[in-house]
Fold:
Amino acid sequence: MPRTQLERARAGETTPSMERVAERENREAEAVRAAVADGEAVIPTNHAHEALDPMVIGADFATKVNANIGASEDASDPAGELEKLHTAVHHGADTVMDLSTGGPLAEIRGSILDHSPVPVGTVPIYEAVVRAGSPEALTTDLLLEVISEQAAQGVDYMTIHAGVLMEHLPLTDGRVTGIVSRGGSILAEWMEAHGEQNPLYVAFDEICAVLREHDVTISLGDGLRPGSVADASDAAQFAELETLGALTDRAQSAGVQVMVEGPGHVPLDQVAANVKRQREVCDGAPFYVLGPLVTDIAPGYDHITSAIGATEAARAGAAMLCYVTPKEHLGLPDADDVRDGLAAYRIAAHAADVANGLPGARDWDDALSAARYEFDWRRQFDLALDPERARDFHDQTLPGDNYKEARFCSMCGAEFCSMRIDQDARERDGGMERTDHEVDLAASPAAATNLPPAGTHDTSRTPAWPPDGADSDDADRSAGPVDERPEADD
Ligand code: SF4
Structure:
């Protein structure tokens, strides 16, 4: 009996999740079904995740953004993680990954799943290492146990680093930055210690059987991704990619939905070629990329170095972007870092959607531009990707209500406001046609994705926030630190 969206799509069934996704993307349900059936799109939707509003990840749909949350050994608890979930969803994350490595892991994950309207991903090997006590103490049985428990709990997608093989490890010897993926480094240590093949590779069919049962999407991890531009596109990276291609086919044959993770650090001129190669090797399976960072010289600004690569990757066909925050390589991000990281990545995703001609994507730009030319400041703020920041920045110098009607801002001043000068000139010269563009976003072909600031989410399903009696702005500002994967790993 078909268990997964992939199996049901292949059987010709249009599921309620496909219909919901079609509604959100303004597409025909049949187009969604066909993309899922072909393995070119996934709908991560665990049967047990009741709070989920289904979404789709695929190159033919709006580019999606993931944010990482999770408790560390030092900090956090279920309430703290709910705060992080709220922060991520509020600022437009399409999925979240719970990368917890400390605290009551199952309780934290259960709380996130109970409240998350977006798909929740995990990297099960993290919990397995915590429970084993060290990478060397991992066993296949423990890995399968953790994967089974997380699947039964409702996790929608899991990073599984099954493509890192013993024979690939020597290929990393000449690298500048070695193995930077947390999962990759754990498995490399295990293989060196035991002299045996990657247990996730050996047990791959058993893992797929568990994932199929609950319709958990597998996200094939790139354990050997480059951690510096010097290591990009090297033999180790592409050897693993070949294995990921074969595993994509095996997982899909087992009825499991598949996406594939990608690098990392890649010079700008190599990004598109990397995406093209992944899509060929993995037969069009959705590509989920971390950045990539296009230069290594800007610690403190890696949300920018990586958003440049992410834009190029999405332009070339990557389906989902894992955000990177300004704290990358430096420390644990706080709520402001999460906000900055998500803004950078939502810009990257939207810029690529506009450039790729996604129907209706540019309507948002056109509506904001029209409001800008009309000096309709309130509408500009409402339409902005981050309305709170746009309003704050404007009001820092011109806070009064009267300035919400002003035909200038403090950047050029009243005298030199070029748009005011241009409009006055057009009014004086009857021969000059006045621009007057009204864009009805509600009628846009991309209406559901053109509703800032919530991105593609149905905000009515977002967990209630703040808790009773708290002020929402204060709650946002007080959000605790948010974990990231090392190298925004896995
Ligand atoms: S003052 Fe300058 S920046 Fe401000 S609205 Fe006019 S043209 Fe734009």
